[in-house]
Amino acid sequence: MCLLVVVSALDPAAPLVVGANRDERLDRPSVPMAVLRHAGPRVLGGRDGQAGGTWLAVNDRGVVAGLTNRPSRQGRDPTRRSRGELPLALARHGDAAGAVEDFAARFRGADYNPAWLLVGDRTTVFALDLTGPGAPEVEPLGPGVHILENAPLHDPSDKVDHVRALLARARREGGTGAGTDAPGAGWLETLRGVLGDHEVPASVAVAERRPETLAACVHGEDYGTRSSTLVAVGADPGRPPRLLVADGHPCTAPFTEVTPWWSP
């Protein structure tokens, strides 16, 4: 995952809305959506065909967990465990607070290549920093829009600033989706447009990274946005999240509703 947008407590009908783009090498095998755990709770998410893990996991109780990797010029250390285990470990729990408590007790950065995670549910959202050798740094996050790319959550980022500006502009121009029946419909439509945006912001970082990776939707010769996911966790705890997935660039690939997958 290279772009994760979490909207927390800004829509009473959908207290958690998430939009995510998965950027990866084009030749790396993957499935954009699969059933990762069948019960207790049931978990849906993408599946990496090489390491077997996931970049975003959503369960039927409303817990959503996603990660981004810390880039390294040396590449990933193959002796360490797959980071794709981490979102699934969090999504095994019935609530985000319990997931984070268990995660902090059991997981250590020395076992994994460096990563950052966001995990949330209807009531709470947390940021996890797993870039050091020890236990993850845990930060509770308040209501608002939280944007994570391949960098620490609070570090200066031209990409994050650009995505935040796109969101603000889309909300001004497109409204809130009031009058629609589906919880979070306005935010989902906003995020759909933002995730498919190609504009590359002016940046001082272009000498350090490929310019196209600063866009929300990345198009490169050997690397780019492979899939996109939209999640709306409604206020009713008895209903599973609404889930839509685009297999490919979200600028052209249609978003398919996979909410019916919650039923066995």
| Beta-strand content bin | 25-35%
Q: What is the distance, rounded to the nearest whole angstrom, between the alpha carbons of the first and last residues?
A: 27 Å
Helix content: 10-25%
> CATH superfamily assignment?
Penicillin V Acylase, Chain A
Number of helices: 4
- Summed up, the domain count is 1
Output the helix-strand order.
EEEEEEHHEEEEHHEEE
List keywords for this structure.
31% strand; 4 helices; 6-stranded antiparallel beta sheet; 264 residues; Penicillin V Acylase, Chain A; alpha+beta
How is this structure best described in words?
The protein has helices at 85-91, 96-106, 158-174, 185-195; strands spanning 3-8, 16-25, 30-37, 43-48, 56-59, 64-69, 115-120, 125-130, 137-141, 144-148, 223-233, 242-247, 255-257. The chain has 264 residues and is of the alpha+beta class. It has one domain: Penicillin V Acylase, Chain A, CATH 3.60.60.10. A seven-stranded antiparallel sheet has the order 3-4-5-6-7-8-9, with helices on one face. The protein has a six-stranded antiparallel sheet with strand order 10-1-2-11-12-13, with helices on one face. Helix 3 crosses helix 4 (185-195). The mean pLDDT is 93.
